[in-house]
Structures are given as C-alpha cells and as structure tokens.
C-alpha cells in the first residue's frame, strides 16, 4: 500500500511537471511575441513636437511621461499604442486601454524611446521572470500563443538571458521528469516483486492447509493399508516439494536482503522474512504429523499382516485337525475288520505287528496333535476377536481328537496284550 501511495504521488508530480512544461512553452511564446510586437512598435513611432500632440495625447503624456523626457524632437511612442501592442494580457481579456499595475509589464505602462527599445523589451522579460510561479501560471493560462511559427518571433539578440533561463528551466524539468520516471519504474518493479512474494506465500499457505486437512483425516477401516500407505507416500512427496518451494523463496529473499535494493521497503522485507519463518515452523509441524500418520499406517499394516498370518495358521491347523479326524475314523474301521477275527498263530503274529505299528503311528499323531494344540493356544492369546472364536472351536475339536486317539491307543494296547 505504501508503494502504491508513492507511485500515485509520483504520477501526480509527473502531471504537474507536464503542466509546468506547457506553461513554460506558453511563456516562451509570449516572450517571443512581445519581442515581435516591440519591433513592430518601433516602426509605428512618430517624430513630432511635444507641443503639436493632440489634447488627449498631451493629457496622457502628463500622466505617463516623466518630466525630464518632455523635450522637442524626441522620438516618442504613444501611450495608447504602446499599451495595445505590448499588453497581450489585457488585449486578450478585452480591456484595451486600461493600465493595471498587476496585469501589465512595466514597459507597457510608460512609453519608450527608440534608442531604448531593446532595454524596454528586456524590462518586459525581467518583469515576467520576477513574477511568482502562481502569477506566471495565471498569466500563462490567460495568454494564447500566436499562430505564427516560433522562428518568426525568435531573435536571439533581443532576449538571450530570458531564453537561456527558460532553456535551463526546461532542462531542469526534463531532468526531474526523468528522475521521477526512473523512480516510478523502480517502485513498480519493487511492487511487482513484492506481489510475486505475496502470491507465492498465499499459494504455499493454501497447499499447507490442504495437506493439514488430509493429515487430520482418520484411517479408513474399509480400505486396505497398502492403498492408504500409497496415498500417504504421495502426500509425503507433496510435502517435500512444498519444502523446496519454501527454501527457494527464502533464498530469493535472502539475496534481496543482501542486495539492499533502495526501492524495496525494509519493513515489507522484514514482514516477508517473518512470514517465511512462520511457514517453515508450520512445515516442520506438518512433517511431524505426516511422520506420525505414517507410523500409524505402518502399525496398521503390520497388524493386518499379523492377522493374515494368524488366519492362515488357523486354516492350516483346521486342515491338520480334519486330517487327524479322517485318519482316526479310517483307523477305527480298519481295526474293527482286521483285528476282529484272528485264530491262526500266523494271523496272530501279523495282527501283533500291525497292532504295534498302529501304536507307533498313534503315538506320532498324539505328538502332532499336542503341538497343534499349543499353536492354537497361542492364537487364543494373541489373536483378534474373530480369530479367538475360531481358535476356541478348533481347541474343542483338538481335545476331542486327542481323547479319541488315547482311547484307540488303549484299545490297541489291550489288543496287543491279548495277542501276546
């Protein structure tokens, strides 16, 4: 806002300079016109005796001419003609013939001899030079420059000092205008850089808000941890890119602080630096939140993997239990048919061997069943709710199988004793 205010002030100064230049050009034209009219007035001078003048002229001469100038054969210029020719201000306003101490130059208020024409013109120029800027502005506004080309009015021998001063003033105005234009350009560049910084900060802040909203969202139970982990990784990449933007902006601002550009406002630079510091701290907080959420996702993924492992183990235990159950049923059927009727000694020996082999196999099944029961007990302790429920059902089945195996083992042992 301060830069924009300075730019507005410089634009106002530029407009004033333009107006002053127009006024200078108008005054320059007026001086040249006065010179031309003075030359023209010299051709209208009348050589006459003071006594031969008209009554009106004598009255006017008594008011305007000093006593020492009333000498015969002096070349004179009538007061009325002089006033008409050398007073463009009153001529423009329609007040011809009136003499004003304020609106007319000194030369128009007294006649001049031919020998002093140049001095009279220079006196007119000095009169305008002595006026205040406000008075010059008023006179310039009331005077319309002649339609004749400037070279027709300009004679360097008649007004060298006035022309030189006007040229110096014109050059001063041009120099000031160039300085103001350069200052305005620098201010616009500083304002443009500041606006660029503001836009970058706004963009970074908006991105931060979006990231914070995503980080504040809770984990979705219905989605797989793998997909959520992939989405979070994309968010982490976005955070890293945003960190790079902040670092680049900090580097650019640091370079500008080192260069110490006079057009840039130190307060604005300090405010931008403070804002960047706040954004950097905010980014650190975002990175901490992102790391925490990533840890939660990793834990959830680990839990899911463990749950899958437990389910797979439970499925495997059920399959092994089903195999034991099937083996137990088939073994009972075999024992009922093979060992039921044995009368010959050879048959008895074969049954004894079969019985011993079955006892060894049953012993192995009992050991395997015991290990399966231990694993199932671990599932009961570590598993989730639905896993525990299935593990409890499996534990009941395993206890039943173990009881059946022990019962079959006792029956075979008794059979072995009977055969022996």
Automatic annotation (TrEMBL):
Disulfide bond recorded as keyword: no
| Positions of the UniProt region annotated as Disordered | 88-115
InterPro entries attached to this UniProt entry? Spectrin/alpha-actinin
Query: Does this entry carry the keyword Repeat?
Result: yes
Q: Which domain of life is it from?
A: Eukaryota
Point out the coiled-coil segments of this chain. Answer: 3-37, 287-314
Keywords carried by this UniProt record: Coiled coil, Membrane, Phosphoprotein, Repeat
Q: Where in the cell is it found?
A: Endomembrane system
Q: Which PANTHER family match?
A: NESPRIN-1, PKA ANCHORING PROTEIN
Record's protein name: Spectrin repeat-containing, nuclear envelope 1
State which gene encodes it: E7ENN3
């Amino acid at each position: 806002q301060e830069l924009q205010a300075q730019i507005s002030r410089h634009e106002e100064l530029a407009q004033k300079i333009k107006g002053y230049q127009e006024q200078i050009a108008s005054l320059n034209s007026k001086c040249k016109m006065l010179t031309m009219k003075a030359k023209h007035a010299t051709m209208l001078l009348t050589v006459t005796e003071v006594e031969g003048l008209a009554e009106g002229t004598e009255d006017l001469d008594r008011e305007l001419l000093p006593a020492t100038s009333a000498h015969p054969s002096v070349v004179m210029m009538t007061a009325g003609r002089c006033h008409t020719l050398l007073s463009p201000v009153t001529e423009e306003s329609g007040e011809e013939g009136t003499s004003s101490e304020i609106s007319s130059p000194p030369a128009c208020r007294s006649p001049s001899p031919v020998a002093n024409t140049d001095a009279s013109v220079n006196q007119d120029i000095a009169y305008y030079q002595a006026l205040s800027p406000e008075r010059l502005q008023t006179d310039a506004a009331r005077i319309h420059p002649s339609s004749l080309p400037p070279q027709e009015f300009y004679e360097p021998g008649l007004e060298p000092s006035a022309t030189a001063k006007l040229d110096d003033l014109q050059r001063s105005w041009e120099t000031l205008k160039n300085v103001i234009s350069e200052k305005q350009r620098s201010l616009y560049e500083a304002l443009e850089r500041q606006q660029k910084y503001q836009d970058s900060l706004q963009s970074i802040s908006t991105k931060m808000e979006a990231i914070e909203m995503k980080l504040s969202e809770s984990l979705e139970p219905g989605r797989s941890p793998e997909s959520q982990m992939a989405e979070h990784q994309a968010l982490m990449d976005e955070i890293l890119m945003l960190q790079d933007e902040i670092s680049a902006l900090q580097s650019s601002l640091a370079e500008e602080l080192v260069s110490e550009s006079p057009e840039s406002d130190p307060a604005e630079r300090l405010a931008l630096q403070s804002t960047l510091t706040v954004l950097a701290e905010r980014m650190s907080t975002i990175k901490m939140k992102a790391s925490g959420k990533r840890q939660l996702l990793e834990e959830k993924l680990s839990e899911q993997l463990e749950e899958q492992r437990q389910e797979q183990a439970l499925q495997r235990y059920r399959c092994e239990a089903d195999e034991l159950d099937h083996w137990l049923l088939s073994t009972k059927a075999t024992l009922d048919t093979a060992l039921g009727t044995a009368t010959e000694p050879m048959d008895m020996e074969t049954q004894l061997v079969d019985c011993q082999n079955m006892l060894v196999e049953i012993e192995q099944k009992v050991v395997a069943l015991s290990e399966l029961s231990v694993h199932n007990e671990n599932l009961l302790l570590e598993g989730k709710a639905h896993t525990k429920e299935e593990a409890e059902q499996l534990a009941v089945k395993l206890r039943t199988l173990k009881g059946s195996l022990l019962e079959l083992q006792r029956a075979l042992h008794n059979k072995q004793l009977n055969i022996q």
